[in-house]
Amino acid sequence: MSYDFQSYPDREMLAINLANRIAGDLRSILSHEDRAVLAVPGGTSPGPVFDDLCAADLDWSRVDVLLTDERWVPEESDRSNTRLIRERLLVDRAAAARLLPLYAPADTPEEVLVDLESQIEPALPLAVLLLGMGTDMHTASIFPGADQLEIALSPNAPILVAMRAPGAPEPRITLSGRVLNDAIRKHVLIFGSEKKDALANAKGKLPEDAPINAVIEEATVHWSE
Hints:
Blueprint: E1 4-7, H1 11-30, E2 36-40, H2 47-53, E3 63-67, E4 69-71, H3 81-88, E5 98-100, H4 113-120, E6 128-131, H5 149-152, E7 160-163, E8 172-175, H6 177-181, E9 185-191, H7 193-202, E10 220-224
Parallel strand pairs: 1-10, 2-3, 2-6, 3-5, 6-9, 9-10
Antiparallel strand pairs: 4-8, 7-8
């Protein structure tokens, strides 16, 4: 797997630099496209990046923001990724962006997959992608051992896949590996020595065992302790 690995002296510098990189990628794509899709993860790691990115001077009214994955919980839940990006990314200048939802009120994600996909499909391919990675080498909600792992990693995968995985307390919905990997610009954000070692250990493994390998080709990895 070939990717660019960039390390930073501290997390604050990483957040500032990565926000600038993403903003620059969006400006570049908007210079020759009417709209651009930015796909981002939830969780705690990207929050500081969002805090810087939301103030970037670009035409946010032409940007669609999409989560890479979502826990199947209402938006008011503390575990909602949608809530996170509304509070930390879709503010300041970025409030002008359009959110493409990855959640709709329903008991299970399967009930609304078609409706959610219909809103995403016209905006593809992803212009800029930001991903995280777990110590188990999962990315988005594509987990080793997940019930729909084979479908999510298939070359003919649908746009969205409902996922249930060992250790995940609720169902998930995720962009498939195919959609993630087709992004024009790809960035991966990881913190700490444990995740750095996990990324190194992923080399040579099949995507079924290390899902990050399905999407990391030609990405830029941003790391700080």
